[in-house]
Amino acid sequence: MTEERVVSTGDGVVATDMVLNIGPQHPATHGVLRLRLVLDGERIVSAEPVIGYMHRGAEKLFEVRDYRQIIMLANRHDWLSAFSNELGVVLAVERMLGMEVPERAVWARTLLAELNRLLNHLMFLGSYPLEVGAITPVFYAFREREAIQEVMEEISGGRMHFMFNRVGGLKEDLPNGWTNRVRTAMAGVRDRLPQLENLVFGNEIFAARTQGVGVLSKEQVLQYGLSGPIARASGIDMDLRRDEPYLAYGELQDVLRVVTRTEGDCYARFEVLREQVHVSMDLVDACLERLEQLPQGPINQRLPKVLKAPEGYTYAWTENPLGLNGYFLVSHGEKTPHRLKLRSASFNNVQVLGEMLPGQLVADMVSILGSMFFVVGDVDK
Amino acid sequence: MSEVLEAALRLIVVFAAFLTLPLLVGQLEHKVMAHMQSRMGPMYAGGFHGWAQLVADGVKFAQKEEVVPAAADRTVFRLAPALALIPYFVAMVAIPIGPGLVGRDIDAGIFFVLAVMGVGVIGTLMAGWASANKYSLLGAVRQVSQLMAYELPFVLAAASVAMAAGSLGFTDIVDAWEPWWLIWQLPAAVVFFVAGLAELNRPPFDMPVADAEIIFGPYTEYTGLRFALFLLAEYAGIVLLCFLTSVLFLGGWHGPFVDSWVWTFAKAGVLAFVVVWLRVSYPRMRADQLQKLAWQILIPVALAQLLLTGVVTVAW
Q1: How far is the first Cα of chain B from the last one, in angstroms, to the nearest whole number?
Q2: Cβ contact (<8 Å) for B204 and A362?
Q3: B34 near A CB under 8 A
Q4: Can you list the domains of chain A with their CATH numbers?
Q5: Cross-strand partners of B98
Q6: Region of residue B42 (left: phi > 0; alpha: psi -120 to 50; beta: else)
Q7: Could you give the 3-state DSSP secondary structure of residue A132?
């Protein structure tokens, strides 16, 4: 393995490109994504995302778990969107069973899904500036997350893996006075969020590091099947909450704004995230209002001892915080699915890195990587 | 004999200051950053508001195993922290903090200090090269190319004030200083401070040690005491820069009521606060953006200031 290199000047210069492994252990990849970069100086010649360090075989495990257990497994792949992940599974099973979900449960689910989206987006609003060297926003973001996590913890007992969905509704009814506490939390977040926004969005250096960097064209987005905030930042006007309404989104169309940008650069992606936070807060408020008007009633359905989905198949997809999250459920009428294919948002979203990174500097690589808003568990499944 | 004794005594005092002031700045950074980020910062070590946190850190560093990577160039690797640290100590000897309060008053003080400070970068380069680590190498190369950006405006800005005072000695400059220089030499002061930040790898110019990109640049492979020495060098650099700026541009020990070394310390303290403040509020620039800043803004401003200073000095 010894290779002799001749170093000289003039005609005899022998230059070898440097291969740099970013990850699997690297502070910029939030987990164990690995990028194999070939560098010429600091300029990236080629980049290859190497994934799978956190593969847990979720899809195979789904096949040997019953539908109650699957919810627990499914909420783990994207650990920042646990509630939204559960949602796809229960929607699929309910659809197979032809089960009607009580109205209170539908609205509560919508509310919780939006709170989950807030938690997710706030995380990235804090962590992305960290990657371009601003160390303070993350503390502000986590302060807001804490306020929301408190109300989530109150109903579900969990701070990350809520496990609050059940086939046919939710685990339990909402506690007394909980909606008021959510409202207080929202008011607080609304009040303090400008501190975070002003710190980042008015900043010249932040703009210089992100504007015009890592531009994704509309075509690339379509070719690679990107979705979520990243796709919308490149001008793809698609949001399942509007285009194929599930839960109560159909009735929230006047509150729901689909945030899009056309620039497709890191700044646009980050801006979409920021504005989606505001949209989500509006949705939360609308859901709260509606929930308080709804008459008392059940929040879930009684389930049989052994829950079996009838033979057939269905595909349930939801607009998760990071993009489209879909479950293709094939049932042979048993208590476990025959196959449950998971389409996760981050898996598609990181694939485009191989095309985005070449030609960029190492410093820009970090800006781009951070702006792709992925969760490694969601990539590796 | 008494001369030797006095010189030794002065050196000892400077050495003590060299060891304690960086810790003070470090503790200031801990606390200021924490409060700006709605945190408390260290609260336990030493009892009162964690005042002994950095002492505890030092003890921890001293206990750690010193690891030298197998592929590293052992001698160079181990020598590098010394080369990064000692120049700052040597430079500190020449900086006066009050009338007569100086390690050694040198006639060409500015010249001496700027030259010595420039040596520190070799320590970083040695560390990056000897570590046999690609991240370290990238960091070292960034550090050295950063030199291209900050060294020229740094020297030009200092030259302006030397011209205005008609002397290269710090004491003479402070004696010649008058309050209206604050306005007249303001551009040079800003350029000097900004370029100094770039020299010290302080945010927003910390790309040689950018943690999100290249882990910790040239210092990635260092552990224990040698790592601590690099950190000490950074904070000693802050101390040096703040004192330099206050002596050159802010009038040193001149102040309302009475001229005293207290003023020098107060001015340097405020500047150190600004250094921390910038770290808390700014993201990191890219290497080429710093070059652009240096060559398109800092150097032209410094040159214009030099011209202005020249004209005013001759015309007066």
Answers
A1: 45
A2: no
A3: no
A4: 49-380 (1.10.645.10)
A5: B101
A6: beta
A7: coil
Residue A3 has what pLDDT?
Answer: 59
Contacts of A249 (CB under 8 A, 6+ apart): A110, A241, A242, A256
- Distance CA(B158)–CA(B255), nearest Å, equals 21
Q: Which residues of B touch A209 (CB under 8 A)?
A: 283-286, 289
Mean of pLDDT values over A86-103:
90
Q: Is the peptide bond before B208 cis (omega within 30 degrees of 0)?
A: no
Q: What is the mean pLDDT of residues A180-186?
A: 92
In the sheet that holds A18-22, the strands lie side by side as: A18-22, A34-40, A43-50
CA-CA-CA-CA torsion for A353, A357, A363, A369, nearest 10 degrees? -10
Distance, CA of A196 to CA of A211 (rounded, Å)? 19
A contacts of B204 (beta carbons < 8 Å): 133, 205
**Which residues on chain A are in Cβ contact (under 8 Å) with B297?**
none
Task: Please provide the distance, in angstroms rounded to a whole number, between the alpha carbons at the two ends of chain A.
Answer: 36
B48 Cβ neighbours under 8 A, 6+ residues apart? none
Place of tokens 């008011």: A187
Reading phi first (left if > 0) and then psi (alpha if -120 to 50, else beta), residue A349 is in alpha
pLDDT of residue B235: 92
ipTM of the complex: 0.84
Mean pLDDT of chain B: 88
| Of the candidates A344, A284, A250, the residue with the CA atom closest to the CA atom of residue A117 | A284
Beta carbons of B210 and A208 less than 8 Å apart: no
Position B183 confidence tier, pLDDT thresholds 50, 70, 90 = confident
* Contacting residues of B for A133, CB less than 8 Å apart: 203-204, 206, 210, 212, 282-284
B286: chain A residues, CB-CB within 8 Å:
208-209, 361, 363-364
Do B287 and A131 make contact, defined as CB atoms within 8 angstroms? Answer: no
Q: For A34-38, what is the mean pLDDT?
A: 87
- Distance separating alpha carbons of residues B264 and B97, to the nearest angstrom: 6
Are B268 and B246 in contact by the 8 Å Cβ rule? The answer is yes
Report CB contact under 8 Å: B284, A132: yes
Per DSSP, A334 falls in state S
Question: What does the buried/exposed string (b/e) look like for B256-285 if buried means 16 or more CB atoms within 10 Å of the residue's CB?
Answer: eeebbeebbbebbeebbeebbebbbbbbbb
- Under 8 Å CB pairs connecting chains A and B tally to 82
For chain B, the domains span: 66-315
